[in-house]
Hints:
Helix content is 17%, strand content 36%. The chain is of the alpha+beta class. It is flat. It comes from Phytophthora megakarya.
Amino acid sequence: MPVLKQIVDGSSGAFLVGFKVPPVLFFDEAMIPSRSRHNITRQFTKDNPHKWGTKLFMTCCADTAYCLRYVAFHKSLT
Length: 78
């Protein structure tokens, strides 16, 4: 899990470079499709088109929908 955290933190911080944070933000969730049994962050969601995958929580710009930061959800961290 520490390797995944380093990758997420490094790539998520790169989104903020060169972009001014707007006053209005929105929070969204997304799913990265994955059926691999070796994916430790894989989750099942019954109602989504992609039933298996990694769930992300994202902070986005309300005007442009540009992703400013994201966090991968892992059920053992809750």
